[in-house]
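Two quick folds needed for the group meeting slides. Do the first one here.
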Amino acid sequence: MDLGFFSPPYAEEYVAGRRTLQEVIEWDLQVARWADEYGLAELYFAEHHTIGHEPSPAPDLMIAAAARETTRLRLGAAAHLLPYHNPMALATRLMYLDHMTGGRYIAGFAPGSFPTDGGLFGVGAGNAKMMDEALDIIEALWTRTDPFRIEGEFWTTELPAYSTQWNGPHLKPFQSPHPEIVMTGVQPTSPTFVDAGRRGYSPMSQQVGLATLLKQWETYTTAATEAGHNPDRSNWRIMRDVFVADTDEEARRLFLEGPAGQTWDKLVLPTFRTVRDRGGKPYALGELLLDPGMSIDELTLEWMVDNFFLIGSPETVIDKITRFNEQVGGVGALLSFVFDYSREPETYRRHLELLGRVVGPEVAQLGPRAARSTVAA
């Protein structure tokens, strides 16, 4: 099992006017340097255009910058929002990025979910259709060498034959046949997971509860198998916050009372508690986090710290990750959110050091194989 991170980034200090955007960027790059130094596996950057508390409009730029600061860390997008890009331009730029990173780049694609982002680009309910068409074009440009023309509903592209005069087209990905592609899902029967399974991409689960995770893997597996692909749990990534300190008490306090807990309490949990309509039935997204029999009123930060997140001393976190791996049936990587501890950087540096140098080696042998052997025993 690998351990990694996902940075939206959370930037409440920037929204409050107490930090500059450059300082937000520099904190993410510092986290990348530490993660690389301590042997952690992956770091992903998001794409948002109109969301002040998650200011990251260009994950490819963050990946390029972080690649110059690191040597081993794999760097990904979670995700490039395809309806907001010309897919031909994005495909060629990401091939270039694959070479810039020496093959450490991981592609993540999504349709986009914030309506204000969609409004900025004049894109409405057609996001999913645009993403699907863009994926077809990107895959073709990454893998086909013969001349072709694709005329779609939203874009038209034509790859010419090779010209000895221009010595091109010439650009192909560094990784063969192309970078690993991940797609993120939230709902139990996520349409994105269906699409990922159908195309043979890797699934990435958001921070949701065990019942939802198991249903997501079933959804992905069914779609992949029906399309002739072999679903591999080693490629399954699950977002679940992990926080390590020297003692259980210290880890709980530093998470609960620090920027991580403040971000969840003031920003993330209110979003999860918001009531929406699903087929005429009101529901809250936070229901996907709860244990069976719980109500949304019981979804508190304290409950999540004690029952949902993987928080504690190295020994405690190793035990929690081992149990979690068994519960889900095996997973390839756990990804934690990055939080802004820039005002107390030693706290976060120590967390990354313990996670990478103490927890990491102990959970490295976990994953699908360990989960299967435990179940068999």
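Then this one, please, same format:
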Amino acid sequence: MRIPLIAGNWKMYKTSSEAIVLAEAVVKALSMPDETQVVVCPPFTALAAVGQIVAGSKIGLGAQDLHWAKEGAYTGEVSAEMLWDIGCRYVIVGHSERRQYFGETNESVNRKSLAALASNLTPIICVGEILFEREAGHAYAVVEAQLKGALSGLTSEQVQGLIFAYEPVWAIGTGKTATPSQAEEMHAHIRKTIALLFGAEIAQGVRILYGGSVKPDNAKELLGRSEIDGALVGGASLQIDSFAAIAKAAKR
């Protein structure tokens, strides 16, 4: 059975001192049994501080992005090795906001994923369609192209440890949510695509999270679907009560 994973993407919220308070609350509330994993992804400025709080707990630490180069003249960027050094074990790659606002492409997602794996970080690779693409009937084709681009050149061994997150972009920060059926159908398509590329055994082992306005009141129904292996939580991860409720809804 795939272990559910709940990842909190704090986006550009929380100063270092605020992040410490939230991280302490997460550790206290969510040092859960092994049947559920919890990861927090603070902004870069709070990673080291939060890393100290979650060290030794069952809470994992993740970053929100990285650069594909090991080092170099890339002002403002952060490498996989730097993230590993301060305790990160996960990194979000290709989030829809990175694609929309900062020119992230399938090629850059691929390069970042390879860089993460080279430093033993587990990428959480995000895919998802915008509203126009869904309404035009292109959602599956768009997500399939994103997957193929992101996974180009990866081996089956590398893919089997990856985490994916399906983000219906039209449901992020809008209050809209894909229905459980819509979400599960896309998750099944993602798994089918991975199976065609790397085999059914690999596809059955990877975890696919749902990310798109996940809240306590819809978490149980979404996370109860067999193809949905957890959630990439945005705004609701910034309040301990809502994040804890979502994480506890993932218990199987």
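Slide caption for protein two: The chain has a mean pLDDT of 95.
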